[in-house]
Amino acid sequence: MELLPNVLYGAAYYHEYEPYERLDQDVAMMKKAGFSVVRMGESTWSLWEPEDGHFTYAWMDRVVDAMGKAGIKVIMGTPTYSLPVWLYHEHPEMLARPLGGAPQFYGMRQNMDTDNPIFRSYAQRLVAHLVEHYRNNPNVIGWQVDNETSSNGASNPDVFAGFVHHLQEKFGTPQNLNKAWFLNYWGQDINNWNEMPTPDSAQSTGYKLEWSRWQQMRVTNYLAWQAALVRQYRRPDQFVTTDFAGAMHRDVNEFEVAKSLDIAADNIYHGTQDNMDGWAQAEHGDFTRSLKHSNYLITETNAQTTDWTSAFQYPPYDGQLRLDAYTDLSSGANMVEYWHWGSIHSGQETYWKGVLSHDLEPNRAYAEVSRIGNELRRIGPHLVDLKISNQVGILWSTDSLNAISFMPFSSSGPQWASAQPVADYGTLVSQVHHTLYRLNVGADFVFPEDPDFSRYKVLIIPALYIADDALLQKISDYVENGGHVLMTFKSGFANEDSAVRWERAPGPLRKATGFSYQEFSSLEHPLALKGDPFGAGAENKVSYWAEFLMPEHATALAWYDHPFFGRWPAITRNSFGSGTLTYEGTYLSDELQRRVLLDVLTRSGLTGPDQSLPAPVHVKHGTNRFNKRVHYYLNYSGSAQQFVYPYADGVDLPTAHPIAHGKTVTVQPWDVIIVEEN
Amino acid sequence: MELLPNVLYGAAYYHEYEPYERLDQDVAMMKKAGFSVVRMGESTWSLWEPEDGHFTYAWMDRVVDAMGKAGIKVIMGTPTYSLPVWLYHEHPEMLARPLGGAPQFYGMRQNMDTDNPIFRSYAQRLVAHLVEHYRNNPNVIGWQVDNETSSNGASNPDVFAGFVHHLQEKFGTPQNLNKAWFLNYWGQDINNWNEMPTPDSAQSTGYKLEWSRWQQMRVTNYLAWQAALVRQYRRPDQFVTTDFAGAMHRDVNEFEVAKSLDIAADNIYHGTQDNMDGWAQAEHGDFTRSLKHSNYLITETNAQTTDWTSAFQYPPYDGQLRLDAYTDLSSGANMVEYWHWGSIHSGQETYWKGVLSHDLEPNRAYAEVSRIGNELRRIGPHLVDLKISNQVGILWSTDSLNAISFMPFSSSGPQWASAQPVADYGTLVSQVHHTLYRLNVGADFVFPEDPDFSRYKVLIIPALYIADDALLQKISDYVENGGHVLMTFKSGFANEDSAVRWERAPGPLRKATGFSYQEFSSLEHPLALKGDPFGAGAENKVSYWAEFLMPEHATALAWYDHPFFGRWPAITRNSFGSGTLTYEGTYLSDELQRRVLLDVLTRSGLTGPDQSLPAPVHVKHGTNRFNKRVHYYLNYSGSAQQFVYPYADGVDLPTAHPIAHGKTVTVQPWDVIIVEEN
Amino acid sequence: MELLPNVLYGAAYYHEYEPYERLDQDVAMMKKAGFSVVRMGESTWSLWEPEDGHFTYAWMDRVVDAMGKAGIKVIMGTPTYSLPVWLYHEHPEMLARPLGGAPQFYGMRQNMDTDNPIFRSYAQRLVAHLVEHYRNNPNVIGWQVDNETSSNGASNPDVFAGFVHHLQEKFGTPQNLNKAWFLNYWGQDINNWNEMPTPDSAQSTGYKLEWSRWQQMRVTNYLAWQAALVRQYRRPDQFVTTDFAGAMHRDVNEFEVAKSLDIAADNIYHGTQDNMDGWAQAEHGDFTRSLKHSNYLITETNAQTTDWTSAFQYPPYDGQLRLDAYTDLSSGANMVEYWHWGSIHSGQETYWKGVLSHDLEPNRAYAEVSRIGNELRRIGPHLVDLKISNQVGILWSTDSLNAISFMPFSSSGPQWASAQPVADYGTLVSQVHHTLYRLNVGADFVFPEDPDFSRYKVLIIPALYIADDALLQKISDYVENGGHVLMTFKSGFANEDSAVRWERAPGPLRKATGFSYQEFSSLEHPLALKGDPFGAGAENKVSYWAEFLMPEHATALAWYDHPFFGRWPAITRNSFGSGTLTYEGTYLSDELQRRVLLDVLTRSGLTGPDQSLPAPVHVKHGTNRFNKRVHYYLNYSGSAQQFVYPYADGVDLPTAHPIAHGKTVTVQPWDVIIVEEN
Description:
Chain A has 678 residues and is an alpha/beta fold. In chain A, 30% of the residues lie in helices and 19% in strands.
């Protein structure tokens, strides 16, 4: 996409939802608030095409024009995420069939089978018209295809037929499939492809994993199809994006989807009031930035409150809206857009409030937004296109997320109830990212398909349950060539079909880990580590899982304090080639994880003054367009914080105050200091 | 209805359920116990009409005759609440279709679509025959139509068609409906009436509210239809009633239903043993009495135990049955009828025990019932038709109950789970009624349709979330004209279509409340009130919800003790015209509510000696047929209680002991003193 | 069946599940481990009959042959518990229809309607072929029909038709049925058999009970049919068994099923690590042994871990596998077979690990199994066919289990939620068995159909809610003739149709119990017994239920400590004829139950030195083939235990050490001493 002159700042805007005409008033208020962008159009197919084949644009043209006159750019969305009633009535079979086949009814959005060919033909006709209509409108700078797209859990006949076709292509013969999925088990092997049972009651772990991949592939294909369609009609300088609903989904492979986009975008909702520490924004930001190793857009984030009921209304404290905007920019966002401008007066999101309250008058939020917007007009050019370069990567495996969820390693309930995980792949990934965040060490996410891990000094690999031999070999080579890996239990255990390897665990990782194991145990109760080797205190224990590691070359870093488990190490480290692999055979408490990770980072030379900041203050670094280093100091607390500024002399961009190396700096409650080095 | 000579006392009686012939024995026991009434016939359509079009009466005639000979009157029920098997087999489509369309099967009672025209024709034929048969039987004094009628959650095609027709009548055009319900949202507006989606997956808050009204209208219409049918055939002095299953339902508008009845009736089940404090009976009694501002019938209440399993069997302590009967009479009941006479030996209600145990012999309950029955024969004429006149009203809004449940303001779980309210409209109403009960201040319920609030000095308005402008204006006028209102948060927030008002909250109430607000917050943790302004102690906090009230004329009575919320008052009072409006912007603890309410009552001159009674003793007042004041003193505890009697000299009706003004009186455990002034 | 030369020891073996050819390797390892038996074939219909009508045996023949060469016997299973895909595709209607009629899909095992006539014809053809094929193979010593058979909850049309036919046979006329089930209630009586409603929404307690019996009868009939089919084709010395999935099911009447078997078999899974105390094995062993009053087979038990997820992986501590094998033998097992040999690499039971881990190499479990196998080769002939003779019986009533579950007497939740029992028939039975186990008093289970209770000195009768008059008379006679009964509340309350008796409770037991009652109460809170009559300490209370017992001849042993309940005794004892009946009108704490039961046992002369062992040590007694007494001392703890050996001089079979009367003996952690008297 084209270089942006400044960060974009604005909101989603639905004039069509408002109870009375107030376009001029809204635009004037936006302009006064310093808005530079709005996102529109993605929610209201029924106005674009009120009846089958009748298209209307006037309702939107006047809004786009008014924005243009006020200097506010438009990102236009294709409105395919919610079916109009007439289309549902013509083709009720479009609704997504859930596993189990319960009947579905019209009413919720995002509930169609996006593979349905008739749905596709209606969507194609509309999107083509729409893009053609606005391709020459200079105020429309980009396109969002669909909205928070997911698989919608669809298992309609056409989805299943596509899946069987996919299996045919992937496995060639039923016999290959039977072997890969071990379908002799319970005598469920198939003789020919048309015998394939539907996924509704599938118990096969191979089937479940491949079905989860198929759901991801459906999302990837659908968005790629829409992106290509838009590209066919758009003006070349209009970018194409889609907005992820947060990150790290079970049925969306964001890394694959991003290949179809000019720029990635994310909807990030986060805690506020006493639950705002910047971490959710950092995790999602790091993930989204890593998809294309580039800057990204925040298409939606909290304005006043976010809630599908009225039981979780937490309007931000004074300063939190502003702190949030800089939080996003500090992770590499090039746009911050609220969802949304004016609160809706009816329906499911009545209490998902916009910048304006239901009275649509200026209010406390509008006042703070106006401060941000006008501040960004001034300092935004120093913040846009921030280049961030991290030396730590976290490997994200959607396959492992899914496969572990089918065979969870923890449960809040008894065995005879369904397992209700309290810890899982997701909590492990969050734990390591949160630990890095608390340590103020920037991290990227890395994907199995990434051809090159070597850009990172340290690679963190949580529970890589699903991996083919090639991926394990790539990890092993990374270590051998000098990389430092921190890896947890269950890594390398199952192959790409979710079959447990039939060589000694951890399979192809054995040389790199320096141990093998034949047994593992759930931990009925948390266990202490013998002698508290990391000085974390006796209350810091390990939980859920213990592999019975038998070191071959590895060194034990910690042992279980238990008469039975005590004979096996809990944590090991192995030198292999010129790198090291530190392995956690069990689930560490947060503080233990912090100490183990800090040890790995320190040995890799990745620590420094950033680890000495007061706990509520987080720092982010990058390089701006002027090739200057920028340091964000963000205070996520209601009290002022002090620290010694350790970098080169610079200036605090919002206040234009000089900040000298070695001087003690105070950052006010819920405030930020942004130092641009001189 | 005709004037009753005495309170009615008896039980439901199902001779047809008994394992062997024992009519004479039962009647003799009833007579000995002082019974004056039984209710029969409503449960056994299959005996009235064993085959399609064949009617039999003999099985019941002999029971009615035997009752007549024993001087026991009969209330006959129309047996339409449970389909006979043959009718189900002829018309399985009669079963109520639940939202979502899950298949339904025969077995449970009250599970038909009462709008089904074939059901109606069968019911009409049967009821007409039945009423005609007993119209000339002098022993049959009244008719109960149907039994504990509700909507049965039916969404059958005919119910939905009726709903669309209702929308057409109410809104005129689809465009009006789209506008009222904001159906542009997610592009779900309709072009014509036949596009209307079913309610199964409706997300529209307008749709949900109107559907809840339609379910109430269905109940109202069905019962009005049956009542009219009975009136067509009955003897004029036979009254028509129906028995509500308790009160304050989401799908029954008792106020509307009552318009079709000669007298209201309620089935009141309540706690026993250590959980009997008289409050449930008082709340339901106050509600039922308020429907027609008149005396009412208790058609069912606890005999021995009430339970659809055997896990909640709590037979009353000695004295509790008698205390319960007088509890009902003290609220204005003219009848107390147990459910039921003899315990059933099989089926769902095996453990919902009658006066007699399964052995059908005299027992502890029968002995106490006999004492009551014979006592009432003596003193009942002094207790029947008690006229009760209260000066406090509580506004009950079924619409607010429903609309708040769609957007609850509290939840026991996290945001990502469905909201499980721990406080809601119902708990608020119960809190204020319970507070009045504990204060021994009598209260009526008031309904939005009530043309005149001015009969009350104090009107309590909990969370009136749904109200049209006219109702809000009526409240405002009531204050302006000298009324005293105690109102809670969320009142006036949404209009009659559950759309949040787009004028500044609280909309048309703004002058009466003396403040406006633009923001509100859920309270993650309870908050104290700064300086404990009501002297309730620091442990008494406010919870769930806080509106950011900006006083315009109102005075702050209390502030939140919190660095952020502390800038807005929690409770305000405004003088408007010659009245006052006290407003709670948050959910008070019970003790805080007690103190705020007592303050309002005291300022309105509604307090006196009744507030000084020992806690377990409750007092109720009324005027009897002899135009004498009657004071009930009911002791809901296992220990004797003493108090100074503050009213004019009188006599204790059960014991005939004189009770003098100013004298200390002792009321025995689970006992009652009923003073009739001289 | 033929006399076994030794206990059988081995595992289930599924060569067809393994990822590569390793038959010779597996057999060599089994042989080295001392295996004498494998169970095979029951899981893989799709290999026996890969296409409709094409049968293959070669895949299994080579496995059977290899076993034969290694001296390992084979139990062959009929593979009817899991449908092949092709059969499902030909006849999807075979899948079991659940109550409520939700659609079912292929994927899970054990989900067919075993009454479906087409299923039966396919099963018949396959089983006949199979048995014929192996009837002359001398290495195949027995047949297991089906696998862990249950009703599969099937309510398919043919199942329902069979049920109606059964009702017709049992009740004769609809009128009789109406009367037995009290169907006048809610007017649900039927006029003719084709009006019978399906069970989906049945509320009738009579219906529910009879439907539960029908599900049991279906299992009995199906297994009897398969057993007869096998007998038609087998070699006469091949035994027929089936493996129960544990014991005491709601839909399996194990006592009736066992009549079709040559020997009973059970799959016993139990706690390990810190949750292994031998009790689960003892309870299931006692139950299975009691079915035919004979030795039995353990067809499946824990190898490494047992878990359908990976959240409950608890590999045994060192010694626990061996202790477990002797635990089973000490209860009368003649075989111990693990499920299974090699862990499966994919599918639902990936983590239900076999003796070998997924690497299929020797491991810790294999080493311990090898020790056991070779030890048993040596000492097994002294352990096989252990004859056990107990003097205490526990009456097991599947009907009472079911009927009480429809009307539970306890609930963890409030009344308005569905009752979630925390105590029920099953917990009562487990409590008394566990108490006996802790006391080291051996017990049998007794079934209502047992013609003779007199073999027991003490008969324990928990909550015999369902019983016809004849059974109650038999109990009464047992007492009158000198038996000692310990009976709990609810016994005798309902008749064989789940109708509460209409004579005074406890009906025909009244003479034997020496009391009657008309009332009972749930206990909202646990109550103490007045004066702690059993010296159990004040913290030991009674819960859930209290019958208001009115002694006629019985003596009160304990009273409730409560102002209301205190007038009725909690526990009574009655002398009747030459026996006694001790009755618990309430649910005792475990310790109270221990003291009451110990009192009964002591008075019956059933106590001795076994009650003085250290808590973790349990003793079992029997007589072996050499007519010698054998005493197992099993130490279920991680620390060594000591006791004085009180029986005649003997020798410890595993170590061949002499054990002298009166000498102090030490049993090592998780170890066993097996004394054969000289």
